[in-house]
Amino acid sequence: VQLQASGGGLVQPGGSLRLSCVASGFTFEGENMSWFRQAPGEALEWVAELSSDGSETFYADPVKGRFTISRDNAKDALYLQMNSLRSEDTAVYYCVKRAGGQRGQGTQVTVSS
Description:
Blueprint: E1 2-6, E2 9-11, E3 17-24, E4 33-38, E5 45-50, E6 57-59, E7 67-72, E8 77-82, E9 91-97, E10 107-111
Parallel strand pairs: 2-10
Antiparallel strand pairs: 1-3, 3-8, 4-5, 4-9, 5-6, 7-8, 9-10
């Protein structure tokens, strides 16, 4: 299983970023996928989950209404659109294969003025 996240960066409060994750080594279209994040000195935090066919989405309360998880099974890709970013969204973001919990290299998101 390989999961490579990208798209992070430095953004001002209120700004937007779109994270991407390319998956390989397993049948992507058959798996529920999630985004997690880890802020400095904090535990890993679940952010959002998407069913294998993209029909069901689930969000943690802190990001509900601001973040949107999506996927393109033809490209083995998972996305996280993040709007109205806040300083507390600063973290390393990881895409995670829900069954088994495998995660790859994350991408740093920093929200600061």
